[in-house]
Structure formats: structure tokens, C-alpha cells
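Why do we care about 3D structure at all? Because function follows from shape, and shape follows, mostly, from sequence. That is the central idea of this module. The next example makes it concrete: a single protein chain, its amino acid sequence, and then its structure expressed as C-alpha cells.
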Amino acid sequence: MTAQSPPRRWLGLIAVTLGVALIVVDTTIVNVIVPSIVGDLGVSSGEVQWVQESYAIVLAALLLLVGRLADLLGARRVFLAGVVMFGVTSVFAALAPTGGLLILARFLQGVAAAMILPTSLALVNATFTGRERGRAFAVWGSTIGAAAAVGPLLGGALAEISWRWAFGINIPLVVLIFLGVRTLLAPSPRTSGRIDLPGAVLSVVGLGLLAFALVEGRTYGWVTTVHPLDVAGLSWDRGPSPVLVSLLVSAVALLVFVRRQAALGRGGGTQPLMDVRLFSIGSFRNGNVATVLIGLGEFGIMAVLPLWLQFTLGYSALQAGLALVPLALGSFVASGASFGMASALSPLALVRLGLALEVVGLTGLGLIATSDSAWWPISLALLVYGVGVGFASAQVTNVVLADVPADSAGQGAGIQSAARELGFALGIAVLTTAFFSVLGTALHQRLVASGMRESLSDQHTAAVTDSAGAAIAPLAADPRTAAVAEAAQAAMSQGLSMAAWLAVGLLVLALAATAAIRPSTATTGPTLTHA
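And the structure:
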């Protein structure tokens, strides 16, 4: 990438990070507008799940393939194509007349998002060097944390008008992002070679099925089928869970994929989709381990926190979104603070500081989670947590890509993005499973202890857990079941507290994992001539 003036570089960074914000917001915004979609299109519960989750599954499945395409075609070119596709599919989603077409639009949005995320990393890595790179990644990473929190707020506000605007609002942003990146950033260099098609198929199948299993494990059962999977008129309603089968097929596909990539790397000829020699770089190898662990503990709490705010504390969708604003503010505070701290602390030190702050914030949330929690301690805990996210999420990318050679930047970014997304998916699976398990067990115990017979207790427990807490309000409105609602709110608070403590444990593990990363490799630019 040719040298550019500092103002153009930083303006170009803003355009790139807006692209990242766009795809992150579209991950979380749908959770808030689901009730409006159900009311307007009359979709089934199964269709609702696919509207919510197909985007994330496709995004995770394509990251390695897109990383290789970015090296071959140029990161800027793939990024811009992804932005255009995201705009077109957003129009498709906004105008969708049926649930099936909306699901198709979400699948295609996931493809576009997969074209944007790793190429945004490659663009930042190629455009900035030295101390500026750390600052650029601080902006990039804080955008992820802020956008994850802004999504529910934006969704809550737009749901008051029409759920379709949650997708329609993307259009002017897409135009702005495209023009900004096209005019402010120089074309990216391209490497010669071709795509390893068998490897591409193996990676897409392996990562896609793994993401599906992690996201859907609680729904369909981890071992045996507990809920039918309906796809294209076919129903999987008995025997081994589709999640278990997906995990097994994914493990085989990824094992064959890795062996093939290692063989291609040794034998020449067709270039590998994933150059396994990148893992000989200590900062890249150990940084990706830390990335997975950070993803495990970092955003899983975001999957259950809005449920607790709405169904236990009685917040509206908009109020729940506003309650998450301190997280976004904290993330932006960290971005600004990192500029002044870069001269005193290395990127690795900032990652460790961020993880420590995340632990403090989630510890506070675990301690104050009750059915009558006041807003201000929640805001304080989320502010501290958000500052931690802004440091850790941003700078771990800087650490991972610090020593990756320029001609492998796309592959390196694709691998790092895959590690991040799979960590997020696994974290959501772990924390939501813990949350709903504690909710169901605690509610059943409370109802039985109050003298309610087992069968009725089971009925109320199933109603609350199956609705993810939405049944609490109707129960509270009926004087005959008000006590059940109170017990459910207390049980949901226990579930949130357990999820917060579990996230704390995972982040402590991530902090320990950073000990394997040598500080010297986290502060230098690319130094290897070959991966």
C-alpha cells in the first residue's frame, strides 16, 4: 500500500471502523426487533432463530476463505465489494415480505460481513506502522465494543417506528463508508496464486457447522434431540442431536483441512488457504489462543443481560438499550486514553490492563444482580467493563498481527477474525447455557419450596425458560401467579450472576494466557520475510 498523508490515513480509518460498526450492530440489533418481526410477518419460532443466527453462522464460516481472497485480490477491493453487498442485502432485508426471504437476506448479509471484517483488519495493519498502528487498532477495537452496545439501543428506538428501519438505516452508512475508503485509502497490494478449492470447502463446512453447533446447542440439545430442527420442509426430531452430528462432522472437516494446509505448505504447488507456518510466529500463535479466551468471556454476557434488564427489572427495549450505553462510552474512553498511554505501555500491557478492568466490571455486575437492582451500579459496572473491552479487544489484534508478513496480512487477519468469532460463539453458548440452567433449576426449587406441586412447578418453569423470561410479565399481571413471577425474577437474577462469575473466570484464564506472549513481539512491526 503506498504511503499516504496522516490526515488521509486517519480519515480512512474512520471509514473502515464505520464498516466494522455496521456489521457488529447488525449482529445485536435483531435481538431487539424480533417481537416486531413476529407481529408483522407472522414468522414461526424456528424462523425467528434463523433470522437471528444465520448471519453469525455464515460470517464465521467464510472468514478464512475471505482472508485468502484479500491477499489475492487486494484487501481494499474485497472490503469495498463487501460494503456494496451489505448495502444491497440490507435493502433486501428491509423490504422482505416473508420470513423465508428475510432469512435469505440475513444469510447474504453474513457473506458481506465476512468480506468486511478480516479485510478491515488487513487495511489497518497495512496502513499504519509502529506506534500509530497501536492507536489505530485502539480505534478499531473500541468500535466493536461500542457497536455491540449501541445495537440494542438503536434497535429499541427503531422498533418504535418499524423493524424495517433497522436494516434501512444501513443504506446511507454504506454509501459513506464506500466513498470514504475508495477515496482515502490506496489500493492494496495483491499476491499471485489461486484458491485452494478443496481447502475452501473444508474450511467453510468445518467452521460453519462448528458455529452452528455452538450457537444452537442449547436449542436442539448437545447429545440427543430435544427440539425439532425444521429446514426446507424436513424435520430432524429424534435420535442424536443435529448439534452433536455437526460437531463431529466439523471436527473431521477441520482436521482434514489442517492436514491439507500443512501438506500444501510443505509441498509447493497450490498455495494453502491457511498458511500454518504463521503459527510458528509466537505472537500470532499465542495471541490467537488469548483471542479465543477473550471472546469466550467478553461478549457472552451481552446475550443474557438485555433479557434480565427487560424481564426482571421491567425495562422497555429502548430503556434496556440505554442501560448499555455506559459500555459503549467506556469503550470509546479506552480508545482515547490509549493514545496517551501508548508511549508508556505496550499493546500487550494494554491487553492485560483491559482484561483486569473487564474482570472488575463483571465482578461488580455479579455482586449487584438482584431483582430490584438500581440503575446506577449497573451503569458503573458496565462503564468499567466497557473501558476494559476498549483496551483488550483492540490491542489483542495489534499483538496477534504485529509480526505477520505483509504478503500474508489477509490470511493472518482472517485467522484472527475466525478466532474472535468462534470465541464469541462459544462464549455465548457457555454463558447462555449457564444462565438458563440456573434460571430453570432455581425457579423450580423456589416454587417447590413454596409448597407448589411438582407438575405445576414444572409447567411454570418451562413457560419462563422457553420464553427466555418473556412469560414473567403476564404472570406478574395475574394476582394468582404474581408469586411465580417474583420467584422467576429472583431466579433470573441468580442466572445473570452465575453468567457474570463464569465470564470472570474465563477472562482470568485469558489474562493468564497472555503470559505466553513475549512483550518484545507485541511492540514491533512485521519482521519476517516469509511466514
